[in-house]
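Quick start: what a row looks like.
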Amino acid sequence: MNPASDAYRAEVLRGYLIAAVWADGCDPDDGEHADADPYTLAVDIPAAFTAETLAAASEPVADPRDRHGSILAGYRPDEVGHDLWLTRQRHGAGYWDGDYREDHGETLTAYAHALGEATCYVPADGLAWIE
């Protein structure tokens, strides 16, 4: 899949949001997916987040594609998004843990760390937020 395509970006965003649900408990279903495989969650991930969060999450997801599209071409978009969340949150896994060529991992890790950590929570209305 071409990193410049909208379909690629949508899959990166999906992977990013699934990682937020899976790794940080940002789950509008009260923990139902806590032990699920992050790539096969049976929830409509974009529908679980507020419109504001989807718009805001699209920016960090789109930026590595725009800046580093040439190095992303060999990687699955859902994994790129998943690893963006894990690396951004400093979970001890992500771009630098061996799944990426070393120079690619270093470049993407620097980008993710520059974003800073995010907070993911689910208020009473049931739609998840990432700030």
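That is the whole record. The mean pLDDT is 80. Residues 49 and 127 are 5 Å apart (CA to CA).
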